[in-house]
Inverse folding.
């Protein structure tokens, strides 16, 4: 069935006047609630991936199996993960550089999808538990797992792009928050501190230390700036499986006692909020938004614990750098 989308008039009613949409309800009880919020658009059919490209086990069914996979990867697996990480990092940078006001996230997905294919990689999110697109696009108050759709990006949006590439039998997972056009100073600050939080977490990676050190470092930095840390989504083990069994909380929890060991690979992906850390989900069962509608940002890297610290598998040359031009 076709539905026409109604757009608000240039001059909006007062809170207690009746809504512009003709529902007969007071404006404050009707469309005022969603004003300035990201609204769901139309999601197009899944794209296909050429059959020459190696596919993860869930690509055709959408059913994700889990199996015992060593947390400590062999040097051979690590080499493959280095490559997957580099591929993901480059796709993320190029997709980020393509963002323009007016472009829809659907168009972003189409461009990004082609970048995966050109590099011989499969977009890990595509049909993962049925997820319909090749990356996640999470704008403004969307915390994570936003689905690319017909919404045109607006001047002033902050847009997180989360890219995961499957190549050589392993996944590389990385995300960053980009500016669309002219972004207000408070949002720019949020994005800057969020990236710093991710780096504080990465710097806390040391063999022999409990994994809770990561969340402690992230939470401390967020608190210093009076920002919230989302609790419902965590970093994860990664390798031949997209989401392995290591859990990386982005806040401090003394029960998070797993000891970091050389050869472990996991993601660090803090989601930081201007307001409260609580979330709610859209009816699509994917899109997570802040409960209070305030903005949120995220950055993510896939990391390897080394003998004396950490290696960022989705970092280095070709990746989005800390002082990168997404600050344009
Ligand atoms: N890339 C996301 C992460 O960082 C996971 C996306 S899964 C999807 O873990 F199904 F939502 F795409
Ligand atoms: Co991840
Ligand atoms: Co990710």
């Amino acid at each position: 069935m076709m539905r026409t989308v109604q757009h608000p008039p240039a001059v909006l009613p007062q809170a207690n006047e009746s809504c512009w949409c003709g529902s007969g309800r007071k404006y404050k009880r009707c469309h005022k609630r969603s004003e300035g919020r990201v609204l769901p658009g139309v999601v197009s059919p899944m794209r296909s991936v050429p059959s020459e490209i190696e596919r993860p086990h869930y690509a055709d069914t959408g059913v994700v199996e889990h199996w015992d996979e060593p947390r400590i990867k062999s040097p051979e697996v690590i080499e493959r993960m280095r490559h997957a990480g580099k591929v993901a990092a480059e796709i993320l940078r190029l997709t980020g550089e393509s963002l323009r006001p007016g472009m829809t996230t659907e168009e972003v997905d189409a461009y990004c999808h082609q970048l995966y294919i050109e590099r011989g990689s499969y977009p890990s999110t595509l049909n993962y538990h049925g997820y319909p697109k090749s990356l996640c696009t999470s704008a403004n108050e969307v915390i994570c797992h936003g689905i690319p759709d017909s919404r045109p990006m607006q001047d002033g949006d902050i847009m997180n792009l989360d890219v995961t590439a499957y190549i050589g039998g392993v996944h590389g997972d990385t995300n960053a928050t980009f500016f669309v056009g002219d972004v207000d100073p408070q949002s720019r600050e949020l994005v800057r501190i969020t990236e710093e939080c991710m780096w504080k977490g990465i710097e806390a990676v040391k063999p022999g230390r409990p994994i809770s050190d990561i969340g402690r470092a992230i939470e401390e930095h967020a608190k210093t700036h009076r920002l919230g840390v989302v609790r419902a989504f965590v970093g994860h083990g990664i390798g031949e499986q997209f989401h392995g069994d290591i859990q990386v909380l982005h806040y401090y929890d003394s029960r998070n006692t797993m000891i970091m060991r050389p050869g472990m690979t996991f993601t660090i992906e803090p989601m930081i909020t201007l307001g409260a850390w609580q979330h709610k989900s859209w009816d699509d069962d994917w899109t997570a938004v802040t409960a209070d509608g305030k903005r949120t940002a995220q950055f993510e890297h896939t990391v390897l614990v080394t003998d004396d610290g950490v290696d960022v598998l989705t970092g280095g040359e070709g990746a989005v750098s800390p002082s990168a031009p997404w600050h344009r």
